[in-house]
Design goal:
heterodimer; A: alpha/beta; Rossmann fold; 3 domains; 6-stranded mixed β-sheet; 34% helix; B: mainly alpha; 13 helices; 0% strand
């Protein structure tokens, strides 16, 4: 390696019980380089970075980090303090920020003597403002972090690392919670910092941003490094193949004639506290054998629409018909009974009851079913058998059907929800951001299941911020903006993009 | 109506309010520190008893008054440490541990008292703290008698309000305590010890609570009685919420409760013939419940309150 190497991971391995999370992974990072760490969920990306940062102690291997003079020094493993001192900063997927204190205090936390009677806030502020100046990572310093936007919080997290003089910055899925615009800004900031000599490793499974913003790509699969290449030479298809180990199965989509209407919303208005919770007299018709895609920038009324269809919000005006039958008092139970299956946006909080078992979660929407209960008592054996069968059919992996559902990974929680929804053969499926945060394999599975339901004769409302997903799955596309729905009339990406932004197409 | 006005304008009423508020000020500040760090300390009622007993007994055994206060604080800190070990590194239920501490601390205090004095019917008296008589200032009209006839412990309580406020808002330690009560990960990620901060806060808070108890036997009265704490600890737990975990508001809340209490005693003598005495005894509690209902609606709880944190689990 050249003199400019700032980080070297040598043969890192880590097992959690019988699970091999990382197996003999070696990596190097050069000064000023942006390295993308790609891989599916569970490929071992985060574990690898946690070993680098000292959160986990590796079973084998070593880490070397360059000191101020560029000489590689071996890093004591298992000590976050040592990593911090060596200039490694890590920004976790879940922010580690105290919301009741301001950004300045969050950034300086731990770098001042605790027992000093006075703080030197002036010096701290000057240093932070200098970093903001150089990196472009703007964030209000005096506002409690609880009042900052997600994008601002992320910038505060990065500022925290830079304030500690990080020379190597690790970002764990930095754009998972950002809007596309915020994501672009973030990567521009990162570019600016790498030009100043900062070295960056970012974890991602979004190919687009990896191709656009990295210098080099390393791909992990099942805990092993399966490929490494300069981004300039990278080919999207080849990388995707490397990540999943085979060509991504292109979802087969046959044309189908739409059937009778299964959902009919007419003149639905919802008065919400914010724009995201407001609908302004919308009409919507979904037919059998049809996937209707709702495209739009987040916060334009998608939540309100989803809440109306799932019965969580009562419209102030308008009528709802499911399968041609009016639903006079729409509530969650009434909508489920009317034949609507819901895949909620926040699968951890609205999709499952985390403290209840996988098996119980699988029957939670049909507790009055005689297969599930008799005379008010749950039929536990039947519930477990049902769960075993569904877990098999839908490939729900985890510690078993009697374990708490919160122990499942995000992808498996989604499969649990899919199993619950599809087993009831609903007339209409509301899929709200069904693939957000899922890896490519799991996302493809969701798409396949939605198409299967369409084939069976269900209607699907697919709300997504991922335009590619809508373009790939939907028969018909409607754009939501400012609480209004407008038929897109085509699958023209450019035109839909303009409609989403509110420009006359 | 005139009577009420007379009461509210009398020096003795305000002096009494401040006197009654003093143990509450210690207690609320102590509970505030614990909860700011993310740990509810329901041991407070028992720690009051321990403080009352230890302070008084140390003086009775020959320690000076300040020696007694120190003994009370140390005993409170010890029970705080027990609560801290159970709830912080071991992560047990803060409710269960706190109530256990209260039962344990109360019983141990009574046990010690009875073992030391097996056959007395009325407890031996000590020479308690006397009013700090500051020349000239004490002679000020109205303010003089209200403020300058209080004992040193009341002054210490008022001083502690300022000290706790300063630490919480102006020092790195205070910021770290606030952060650990909101999101322990934020503290851990920056290399500070979550356990250290929380244990330290509980121990310090418990020492303050015990001083509240010590005030009862060393200032308000001059001996230790069974049942003398009489729910003051629980009142502090409510007052912390009323105070939104802020020292200044804690002082205000304690004074308000003290004023209610002082008022009911006086109304009882004025109107005792018309209304049963129990109504007046209830009044401060009912009024604090009403105040709490109003204040707690917008209460901004420390987010990590009651949530144990374990190293290495994210």
């Amino acid at each position: 390696m050249t003199d400019s190497t700032v980080l070297r991971l040598n043969g890192l391995s880590k097992r959690f019980g019988p699970v091999v999370a990382n197996d003999d992974v070696s990596l190097t990072l050069a000064k000023g380089e942006a390295l993308a760490l790609l891989g599916e969920n569970g490929a071992g990306k985060t574990t690898l970075m946690n070993m680098l940062f000292g959160h986990y102690l590796p079973d084998a291997g070593s880490v070397e980090v360059a000191d101020e003079n560029g000489v590689l020094q071996s890093l004591p493993l298992g000590h976050p303090q040592a990593a911090l001192a060596a200039g490694v900063g890590m920004v976790h997927q879940h922010f580690a920020l105290a919301e009741n204190i301001n950004a300045l205090d969050n950034i300086t936390l731990g770098s001042e003597p605790l027992l000093a009677l006075r703080r030197n806030r002036q010096a701290a502020r000057a240093k932070i403002e200098g970093i903001i100046e150089r990196s472009g990572l703007k964030a209000p310093l005096n506002t409690p972090v609880g009042r900052l936007s997600v994008g601002e919080r992320q910038r505060v997290e990065i500022l925290k690392a830079l304030y500690r003089d990080a020379r190597i910055l690790v970002l764990d899925e930095p754009t998972a919670v950002l809007t596309p615009q915020e994501a672009d800004t973030l990567f521009e900031n990162i570019k600016a910092m790498t030009r100043e000599g900062l070295s960056v490793i970012f974890i991602s499974h979004k190919l687009r941003e990896v191709l656009a913003f990295s210098d080099r790509i390393a791909v992990l699969r099942h805990g092993r490094k399966v490929g490494e290449m300069a981004t300039a030479d990278a080919d999207e298809k080849a990388i995707a193949r490397m990540m999943v180990g085979a060509d991504t199965p292109k979802v087969a989509r046959t044309d189908m004639a739409p059937g009778a209407p299964v959902l009919n919303l007419s003149g639905i208005s919802v008065t919400g506290r914010s724009k995201r919770d407001t609908l302004k007299g919308v009409d919507l018709m979904v037919n059998a054998h049809e996937i209707l895609g709702i495209a739009g920038i987040s916060g334009n009324g998608q939540s309100a629409l989803a809440n109306v269809i799932s019965g969580l919000a009562a419209p102030s005006e308008g009528h709802i018909q499911v399968d041609g039958i009016p639903v006079p008092k729409p509530g969650p139970a009434a909508m489920v009974k009317a034949g609507i299956g819901r895949i909620p946006e926040d699968r951890h909080h609205e999709g499952i009851v985390g403290a209840m078992s996988v098996a119980e979660n699988m029957v939670i929407e049909r507790l009055d079913d005689p297969e599930v209960q008799s005379r008010g008592l749950l039929r536990r054996d039947a519930i477990r058998d049902n769960a075993e069968r569904l877990a098999q059919a839908y490939d729900v992996r985890g510690p078993g059907v009697t374990a708490s559902s919160r122990l499942l990974s995000g992808g498996n929680i989604q499969k649990l929800i899919l199993a619950r929804v599809f087993e009831r053969s609903p007339r209409l499926i509301l899929a709200n951001q069904p693939t957000r945060g899922l890896d490519m394999g799991a996302a493809a599975e969701v798409g396949r299941r939605l198409l299967e339901a369409r084939e069976r004769g269900a209607g699907v409302v697919l709300i997504s911020e991922d335009l590619d997903e809508i373009l790939g799955l939907a028969d018909r596309i409607v754009v939501i903006r400012d609480g209004n729905l407008v038929e897109a009339g085509s699958h023209d990406r450019e035109k839909i993009g303009l409609m989403m932004a509110g420009e006359p197409a | 109506m005139m009577d009420l006005l007379n009461i509210l304008l009398s020096e003795s009423f305000w002096a009494a309010s401040l006197r009654i508020a003093t143990p509450l000020i210690f207690g609320v500040l102590g509970a505030l520190i614990c909860e700011r760090a993310g740990v509810l300390n329901l041991g407070i009622e028992g720690i009051f008893v321990v403080g009352a007993m230890c302070g008084w007994m140390a003086v009775w055994l020959g320690a000076g008054l300040w020696g007694g206060a120190l003994a009370a604080a140390a005993a409170g800190a010890l029970f705080g440490l027990l609560h801290a070990v159970l709830t912080v590194p071991l992560g047990l239920s803060q409710h269960v541990s706190g109530l256990g501490i209260t039962l344990f601390a109360t019983s141990v205090s009574y046990f010690t008292y009875r073992t030391a004095l097996p056959n007395v019917s009325s407890p031996p008296r000590i020479e308690p703290f006397q009013a700090l008589d500051i020349p000239l200032l004490s002679d000020l009209p109205f303010l003089g008698p209200v403020l300058f006839q209080q004992t040193a412990l009341t002054w210490l309580a008022l001083l502690m309000v300022a000290v706790v406020w300063y630490i919480m808002n102006r020092t790195a330690l205070g910021v770290a305590i606030q952060a650990v009560g909101d999101n322990p990960d934020s503290v851990d990620a920056q290399g500070l010890s979550v356990y250290g901060l929380r244990i330290g806060a509980i121990v310090a808070g418990s020492a303050l609570m015990a001083l509240g108890g010590a005030f009862l036997t060393m200032s308000a009265f001059d001996a230790f009685f069974f049942g003398m704490v009489n729910g003051r600890g629980w009142v502090c737990i409510a007052l912390v919420i009323f105070a939104s975990w802020r020292p200044g508001k804690a002082l205000f809340g304690a004074l308000l409760f003290g004023a209610f209490d002082a008022l009911q005693v006086r109304l009882q003598t004025e109107m005792g013939a018309l209304v049963p005495g129990q109504v007046f005894l209830m009044a401060p509690y009912i009024l604090s419940i009403i105040a709490l209902v109003i204040a707690a609606r917008s209460a901004d709880y420390p987010r990590a309150l009651l949530t144990p944190w374990f190293k290495g689990q994210r």
